């Protein structure tokens, strides 16, 4: 079978590029330590998420070591709890793990302008760990259609200076 | 400008068939196959018309240019209609049309039974009508139907049973259509033992085998979970399992939209350019790669899903990246074939040959412009496929920006362009409003250029997709490039041009449909020249479709076996999520 010389070159170049792309993702996972959302968050009962040890009352908790926080967020039509009626507050210079689940339909949990972006699937807990260096204010938005009021489902996340963060805000 | 390629066609392949086909159109040789093709295209273009009108309503509503047509709550019924009518019914009825034509043309025979062909067509049509009825019921208060579940119908959001029953009937119709073409192939094989499979038939076979594997996921999802849930036979479903079954089907369906375009680019576009296909064997390799790699990639739509182990996302990512290969090969072959055609027409120079191409022929111009857009869509798709960088744009407006370049242009514009060439052959009527047809691909190209670039950039700023009002009180989006206002306007203007483009296309088709038969020459030449490098110098194993099918199944088992097993092991309905709305 005759393959033109240019076509062979093109084929080799395309394969090299594909290998390069896979390499960058592998480097992101192994070298830069980018963790995907996966099955480590465990499962819960969609109708009673807090009954499982994989999920707690929504709110901010102290983490396993100083400077680490766990934030439990419940997504439901058409609210983030916490986030929508009160902003989620965490201190700057902290490592925060978000634990997100839904208690009705599929939602999205996106911190606008960042790569914090996960699905909230009933029965599953999504965990995303991030570092916040600077104080800032971010929007939260549901980016998966969840019903007729979907466009109203939003909230905010405030990363406050450590001095302004009060331990009484922690559950 | 009407048909420059006619007079300039080089002597080398000005064969007897070419002259004969000027007088004898496909419809005269194969009236029954032509009828099924016409019927399929009629439904396809009807779905396109409705879907395009819904599209402009959305474009103006979302961007807050005009919100007088629907309420924001009804936006989602409109969005469901736009997605289902265009992504499933416009594209796939076109596919059944062009594949019926391709089977008959490449085998040189009618389909085995006109009655059986009509059965699958009517089954598909009634399914489509049921599903559309359920969706549009959501817009009418007095009708107790609704299906505001969007094109992906993620459980536990629930639609009226009619929506799922319609989808199931339509799906079975596509299976029977495939059986019809495969049966025609077996009849041909009995009469032609030892011959290479004609290229178009080969493409149809591999595409349909891919479809049989892929639709298994959505068939199980609809028949065993969603339809019983909507009928109240079961009380809950596992949302992760049903999502996974959807995406088992949801990525390969992308190739089911694209394969008719590839089919046209490989077998018709080279001829429209004035030349012939560069390599038949590589075209076969490309379709084999699609058969093998299309399905074990679905988890790349679930990169952001909890409950799926990272390793299986990685496997899907690797397969997805290798799926770039057939598209890169296609880019080479198609461009090389076009260049060959242009040089046959007297084109010279490194890039000067581009000027020699028939840009005034709407069939050629549409295919070529669709190909250019597909290159851009391919690159934004590489970003989507990159497992980590995907987090920046997952479920943002970037994603519809991407797929309006792929299915919305590579597939849709090619389908429209090929219709300008094919429709006269299956009706025996000369194409009407030729001037409108000549402009139409450019209107689409410019409209999509405006809309899609703005959608990509808005997505980078974090603007979500699938929402009636992407304007929030709690925060402002910070665009990296451009301003939010400018992007909104580009989306509104681009969306309006696209709707105009669709209306122009439908006008040409309706005008041709209503025209009288036999007046004037058809203005198309149906002869397809032989490739430069034919099938005879390629290994016969390429035609061993059974072998490729088995490999495809093995890869699917590797990619999906364990994850689906672990989702089902704790009970297929656990974790148990009850439906909404109840």
TrEMBL record, chain A:
<dbReference type="InterPro" id="IPR002429">
    <property type="entry name" value="CcO_II-like_C"/>
</dbReference>
<protein>
    <submittedName>
        <fullName>Cytochrome C oxidase subunit II</fullName>
    </submittedName>
</protein>
<dbReference type="InterPro" id="IPR008972">
    <property type="entry name" value="Cupredoxin"/>
</dbReference>
<keyword id="KW-0186">Copper</keyword>
<dbReference type="InterPro" id="IPR034214">
    <property type="entry name" value="Ba3_CcO_II_C"/>
</dbReference>
<dbReference type="Pfam" id="PF00116">
    <property type="entry name" value="COX2"/>
</dbReference>
<dbReference type="GO" id="GO:0016020">
    <property type="term" value="C:membrane"/>
</dbReference>
<dbReference type="GO" id="GO:0004129">
    <property type="term" value="F:cytochrome-c oxidase activity"/>
</dbReference>
<dbReference type="InterPro" id="IPR001505">
    <property type="entry name" value="Copper_CuA"/>
</dbReference>
<feature type="domain" description="Cytochrome oxidase subunit II copper A binding">
    <location>
        <begin position="66"/>
        <end position="171"/>
    </location>
</feature>
<dbReference type="GO" id="GO:0005507">
    <property type="term" value="F:copper ion binding"/>
</dbReference>
<keyword id="KW-0479">Metal-binding</keyword>
<dbReference type="InterPro" id="IPR051403">
    <property type="entry name" value="NosZ/Cyto_c_oxidase_sub2"/>
</dbReference>
């Amino acid at each position: 079978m005759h393959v033109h010389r240019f076509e062979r070159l093109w084929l080799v170049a395309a394969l090299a590029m594909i290998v390069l792309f896979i390499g960058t993702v592998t480097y992101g996972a192994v070298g830069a330590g980018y963790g995907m959302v996966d099955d480590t968050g465990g499962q819960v009962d969609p109708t009673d998420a807090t009954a499982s040890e994989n999920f707690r009352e929504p709110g901010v908790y102290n983490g396993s070591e100083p400077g680490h926080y766990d934030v439990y967020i419940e997504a439901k039509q058409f609210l983030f709890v916490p986030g929508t009626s009160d902003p989620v507050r965490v201190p700057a210079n902290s490592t925060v793990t978000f634990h997100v689940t839904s208690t009705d339909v599929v939602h999205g949990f996106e911190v606008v302008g960042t790569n914090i972006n996960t699905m909230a699937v009933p029965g599953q807990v999504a965990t995303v760990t991030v570092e916040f260096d600077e104080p800032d204010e971010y929007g939260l938005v549901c980016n998966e259609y969840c019903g007729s009021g979907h466009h109203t489902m939003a909230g905010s996340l405030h990363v406050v200076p450590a001095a302004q963060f009060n331990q009484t805000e922690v559950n | 400008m009407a048909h420059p390629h006619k007079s300039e066609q080089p002597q080398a392949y000005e064969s007897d068939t070419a002259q004969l086909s000027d007088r004898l159109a496909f419809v005269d040789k194969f009236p029954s196959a032509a009828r099924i093709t016409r019927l399929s295209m009629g439904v396809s273009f009807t779905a396109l018309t409705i879907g395009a009108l819904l599209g402009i309503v959305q474009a103006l509503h979302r961007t807050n240019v005009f919100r007088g047509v629907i309420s924001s709550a009804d936006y989602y019924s409109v969005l469901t209609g736009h997605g289902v009518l265009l992504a499933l019914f416009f594209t796939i009825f076109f596919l059944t049309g062009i594949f019926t034509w391709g089977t008959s043309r490449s085998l040189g025979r009618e389909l085995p039974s006109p009655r059986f062909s009509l059965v699958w067509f009517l089954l598909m049509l009634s399914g489509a009508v049921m599903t559309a009825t359920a969706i549009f019921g959501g817009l009418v208060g007095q009708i107790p139907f609704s299906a505001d579940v969007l094109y992906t119908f993620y459980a536990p959001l629930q639609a009226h049973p009619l929506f799922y029953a319609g989808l199931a009937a339509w799906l079975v119709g596509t299976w029977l259509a495939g059986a019809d073409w495969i049966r025609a192939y077996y009849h041909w094989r009995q009469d032609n033992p030892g011959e290479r499979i004609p290229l178009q038939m080969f493409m149809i076979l591999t595409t349909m085998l891919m479809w049989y594997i892929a639709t298994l996921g959505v068939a199980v999802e609809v028949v065993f979970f969603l339809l019983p849930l909507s009928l109240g036979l079961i009380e809950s479903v596992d949302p992760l399992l049903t999502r996974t079954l959807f995406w088992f089907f949801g990525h390969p369906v992308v190739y089911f939209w694209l394969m008719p375009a590839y089919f046209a680019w490989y077998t018709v576009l080279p001829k429209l350019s004035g030349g012939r296909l560069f390599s038949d064997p590589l075209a076969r390799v490309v379709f084999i790669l699609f058969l093998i790699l299309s399905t074990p990639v679905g988890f790349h739509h679930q990169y952001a899903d909890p409950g799926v182990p990272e390793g299986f996302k990685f496997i899907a990512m690797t397969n997805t990246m290798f799926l770039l290969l057939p598209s890169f090969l296609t880019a080479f072959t198609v461009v090389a074939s076009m260049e060959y055609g242009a040089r046959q027409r007297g084109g010279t120079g490194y890039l000067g040959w581009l000027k020699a191409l028939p840009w005034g022929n709407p069939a050629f111009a549409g295919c070529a412009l669709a190909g250019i857009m597909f290159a851009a869509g391919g690159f934004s798709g590489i970003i989507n496929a990159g497992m980590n960088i995907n987090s920046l744009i997952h479920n943002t407006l970037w994603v519809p920006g991407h797929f309006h370049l792929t299915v919305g242009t590579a597939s849709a514009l090619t389908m429209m362009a090929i219709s300008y060439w094919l429709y006269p052959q299956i009706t025996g009527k000369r194409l009407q409003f030729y001037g409108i047809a000549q402009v139409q691909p450019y209107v689409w190209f410019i409209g999509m250029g405006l809309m899609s670039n703005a959608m990509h950039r808005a997505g980078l700023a974090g603007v979500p997709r699938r929402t009636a009002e992407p304007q929030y009180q709690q925060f402002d989006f910070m665009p990296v490039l451009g301003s939010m206002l400018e992007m909104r306007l580009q989306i509104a203007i681009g969306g309006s041009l696209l709707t105009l483009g669709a209306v122009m296309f439908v006008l040409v088709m309706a005008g041709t449909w209503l025209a009288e038969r036999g007046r004037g020459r058809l203005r198309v030449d149906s002869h397809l020249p032989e490739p430069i490098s034919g099938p005879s110098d390629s290994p016969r194993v390429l035609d061993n479709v059974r072998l490729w099918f088995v490999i495809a199944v093995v890869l699917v088992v590797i990619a999906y076996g364990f994850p689906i097993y672990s989702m089902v092991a704790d009970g297929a309905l656990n974790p148990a999520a009850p439906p909404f709305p109840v």
